[in-house]
Amino acid sequence: MKSLVLLLCLARLWGCHSAPHGPGLIYRQPNCDDPETEEAALVAIDYINQNFPWGYKHTLNQIDEVKVWPQQPFGEMFEIEIDTLETTCHVLDPTPVAQCSVRQLKEHAVEGDCDFQLLKVNGKFSVAYAKCDSSPDSAEDVRKVCRDCPLLAPLNDTRVVHAAEAALTVFNAQNNGSNFQLEEISRAQLVPLPPSTYVEFTISGTDCVAKEATEAANCNLLAKKQYGFCKATLNEKLGGEEVAVTCTVFQTQPATPQPQPEGANEAVPTPVVGADAPASSPVGAPGPLPSGSPVYTHVLAAAPPVLPLHRAHYDLRHIFMGVVSLGSPSGEALHPRKIRSVVQPSVGAAAGPVVPPCPGRVRHFKV
Questions:
Q1: What are phi and psi of 187, to 5 degrees?
Q2: Which domain covers residue 57, as residue numbers?
Q3: Looking at CB atoms within 10 Å, which of 48, 121, 175, 343 has the fewest?
């Protein structure tokens, strides 16, 4: 009998030690389409577009999951998983992402998957952790919607590089302003019939005059950076090559902004056409860039990593590798992954009311 009593006491003691306790183990799961959840997701999207130094802006497509943890000494930590889609706006384009067109499936769409953790204090979100990757849609899926649409080509393909350089030469020859240098090849497609190369690339202004520049090596980039975005098609013909190119040069942003009347801060890209005929895009190629937008501050990564040589797009994972850290209001560093390893979701789920399931709605299309 004494042994039985002792056994029951030990069992109760073990249960007390093993049972979770404390407010730090309870989280809530709001609806993925709640306004607060979407606000957190849009802050994450802004963070991506402000810190991605190459390629194109991304937009929110779907919120997959969200958990909200109480954060000591105050505030809340939002753990959120989102799907993004690449837009047709380059990251240097000042057009707000809300006004950018999503790249369609027939254009060989690119999808991003991201895990974010955002600290909310006094109604404001700050990014504490970001990990993303992105990839183009499969060739099979593109063929389902458009059998003859070209796929993404490696950006270092000799035909792609040649097309970009030839297009820039044509643009500079017909440009009355600054001489421009090739900044980045952003996207390319090879069309078999008729043989042609479609390429999108960015350019940067120099202190040389376009029609007077003879040696590009003698030209220096402008102190106030001036960027442009170009689309070009190089058609291969029996008698040689034919290049059609259009470029949009973005206005430079003043180093020290001065107070302006309402609406005066809008920076409108200046269209500059480098050929009489507009660039003829292949089947499935995107249309022209939107024009007119507020000033957009572009943030470059401090030390960009070495990118894969034969890439066909700029992968988000090369910048958002899960190494972002943010100091808490108390001065202590946040460790989001450490929080996740301690919590027990079943406790929080049982304590709160039943909420609508995630994932949330698809805003554009699934890739």
A1: -165, 145
A2: 20-149+294-367
A3: 121
